[in-house]
Design brief:
Blueprint (H helix, E strand, L loop, with lengths): L17 H21 L8 H31 L2 H4 L4 H8 L5 H13 L6 H8 L5 H14 L5 H16 L5 H15 L2 H13 L2 E7 L4 E7 L3 H11 L37 H17 L12 E7 H5 L5 E4 L4 E3 H10 L1 E7 L5 E4 L8 H11 L15 E4 L14 E4 L1 H10 L2 E5 L2 E5 L2
Parallel strand pairs: 3-6
Antiparallel strand pairs: 1-2, 3-4, 4-5, 6-7, 8-9, 10-11
Helix pairs in contact: 2-5, 4-5, 5-7, 7-8, 7-9, 8-9, 14-16
């Protein structure tokens, strides 16, 4: 079988005579050494030659990874890693110390999967060069998520579908990611998605560590949901994190000439690194959020734009929403975000036309929040005493289901119980005296 690099690919289990294979690899090593000598002075290459050399080297690297999968696949089949007392990944790392850790993991993943007949076509596609190793690993990670929900025949169909998609060169990584997210959402019921989301939610974590001599501190955040990730990313990708533009010192709107003493001075130039700008953006939002008076933040929550189908939003179908940063958020989390986050949902009909663009005016107003703080006093969940300052205004009848943005449809909930209420689809009775939750 001829791969994309134009050379004959080694079969999964066939291989040539042992001596011939060893001799061929020795010749390959000699060719590589000659190439190293020939490229000892890249400065002598012309511009078009640089591009051609880089393209050729990329093909060699990809082909080498494919051959590594073939050999590792055979080694795992013979149990060489077990004889050496290693896991498959550690065995690959030991015999190929020059591989990057991620590459070693992906090669071992594909080779391990090939031991099961249903994955053989995917491994063969890697070996013949039609599917890169990292794409095959991406496919296997998606398949791991949906396998418990599928029968053998359905799983085989899903594997074939993703193998074909991964082999299509016109699909970039984002395209492939969207295909996989849609497949996962289709295969898993919303109940299963909620259960998985809840398990991820339990892994949320923030802890502090020191750097160097302890004079610097680091907070490590483990994000517990796609919605939280997109909210944080929205801050870090916002204009707050953009470089400050140079100021015009000419007085007439024209460009200043530094040679004539005009233009931006060193003090006016934004010399912050990208990481420093993101830090400053995060701290700006954080400080404003905790500096509000009478329990009112002085800035809205980070804005997230999500595209989602109407049926998925209403809960009639399992599905996901897609953010402008190409991230995905499960439909049940989109419904939760719609309570109070500055979310702009682009709701699509069956033909893909936009039915509605959510408006921020549906969010709780400062006056309503003061009234809620007076009525509810804090989190309305039984037994919780979180003050109103730190609570969200929850739509008792979800906004996605036609719930109105008025006091009779609002209830204050702390973030933890807000998440719980959405996960369990809990309802409540609301009147002028307060909120009474109907808990099952």
């Amino acid at each position: 079988m001829r791969g994309r690099w134009g050379s004959e690919a080694t079969g999964g289990r066939d291989g040539g005579a042992g001596g011939g294979a060893v001799a061929a690899v020795a010749q390959l090593a000699d060719a590589v050494e000659r190439s190293v000598a020939a490229l000892a002075s890249p400065a002598l290459l012309q511009e078009f030659e640089l591009g051609e050399v880089l393209s050729a080297l990329d093909g060699v690297a990809a082909r080498t990874h494919a051959l590594l999968v073939a050999v590792v696949r055979e080694g795992l089949g013979r149990g060489l890693h077990q004889e050496a007392g290693f896991s498959d990944v550690d065995w690959v790392r030991g015999v190929c110390p020059g591989l990057a850790s991620r590459t070693a993991v992906e090669i071992a993943m594909v080779a391990r999967a090939a031991q099961q007949g249903v994955h053989v076509p995917l491994a063969d596609a890697v070996q013949d060069g039609s599917v890169p190793v990292h794409r095959a690993a991406q496919v296997l990670r998606a398949l791991t998520r949906i396998r418990p929900a599928l029968g053998e025949a359905e799983y085989a169909e899903a594997t074939e579908l993703l193998t074909v998609a991964a082999a299509r060169e016109e699909f970039d990584e984002r395209d492939l990611g969207r295909i996989m997210s849609k497949l996962v959402a289709t295969c898993l019921s919303e109940k299963e998605q909620v259960a998985r989301a809840q398990a991820r939610h339990e892994l949320r974590d923030v802890h502090e560590s020191s750097l160097a001599d302890g004079s610097l501190r680091r907070f490590v955040v483990t994000v517990g949901s796609d919605a939280d990730y997109e909210a944080i990313r929205a801050v870090l990708m916002s204009p707050l994190a953009a470089p400050t533009p140079r100021q015009d010192n000419t007085g007439d709107g024209g460009a200043a000439d530094p040679a004539e003493g005009g233009g931006a001075t060193l003090a006016e130039l934004d010399t912050r690194t990208a990481g420093q700008r993101r830090y400053d953006a995060f701290m700006t939002v954080f400080r404003r959020g905790v500096a509000g008076t009478e329990g009112q933040p002085t800035t809205p929550k980070a804005q997230v734009m999500v595209t989602i189908g109407l049926q998925e939003l209403r809960g009639a179908l399992a599905g996901t929403g897609r953010t402008v940063h190409e991230g995905t958020i499960p439909a049940h989390q989109v419904r939760q975000l719609a309570c109070e986050a500055d979310l702009i949902p682009a709701v699509l009909g069956e033909a893909g036309q936009i039915l509605d663009l959510g408006r921020a005016k549906r969010l709780v107003t400062p006056g309503q929040r003061r009234a809620l703080a007076h009525r509810d006093g804090g989190c309305t969940f039984p037994g919780c005493h979180v003050p109103a300052t730190w609570c969200d205004a929850h739509h008792v009848v979800h906004w996605a289901r036609g719930g109105r943005s008025d006091l009779g449809n609002y209830a204050l909930l702390c973030p933890r119980h807000h998440t719980w209420v959405h996960q369990h689809d809990a309802s409540a009775d609301v009147d002028s005296t307060g909120v009474r939750w109907r808990l099952r």
